[in-house]
Amino acid sequence: xxxxxxxxxxxxxxxxxxxxxxxxxxxxxxxxxxxxxxxxxxxxxxxxxxxxxxxxxxxxxxxxxxxxxxxxxxxxxxxxxxxxxxxxxxxxxxxxxxxxxxxxxxxxxxxxxxxxxxxxxxxxxxxxxxxxxxxxxxxxxxxxxxxxxxxxxxxxxxxxxxxxxxxxxxxxxxxxxxxxxxxxxxxxxxxxxxxxxx
Length: 198
Prior knowledge:
Elements: H1 27-36, E1 40-42, E2 48-50, E3 63-66, E4 81-83, H2 85-99, E5 105-111, E6 119-125, H3 128-134, E7 152-157, H4 164-167, E8 174-178, E9 183-187
Parallel strand pairs: 3-4, 3-8, 6-7, 7-9
Antiparallel strand pairs: 1-2, 5-6, 8-9
Helix pairs in contact: 1-3
């Protein structure tokens, strides 16, 4: 399932912004790309060092779940903030517009090691080091098992700032989960742990 909407300009899908040469890169290639793009520096003995920006931990007030009738009774709304489908649609379209002027990194990974219960996850990131990080959270299937339609998609655009008045969120940072569309949008957060804390 390729996720796309009609954006005002630019890319029609996140796949349009992920060139083939930036798909399913190895950890070594992502490390090199992060350094080449100036996303981080190599410290003594070789570790990659990056700056995570203003956020230093969880951002619980910035997490939202899209409120659809079909999942209304399956979500604990006392602990999860709702976002309307219309607000999420606008967020998705605006993220797509933002992505239209960038080259995204795409990875086909898996959630869960047991193939009986695992899901295929396609991840789009703006930063190479975020792609490197997500490789430690999800399973990297063999290359011949990658591709096809994902069960869930994560889009991580730390350079995109959400607009609370337009997108129904509390700040420029948002982590929005749409369980019906099976899509997670993350904006304005340079801490890649947002990719893990869904």
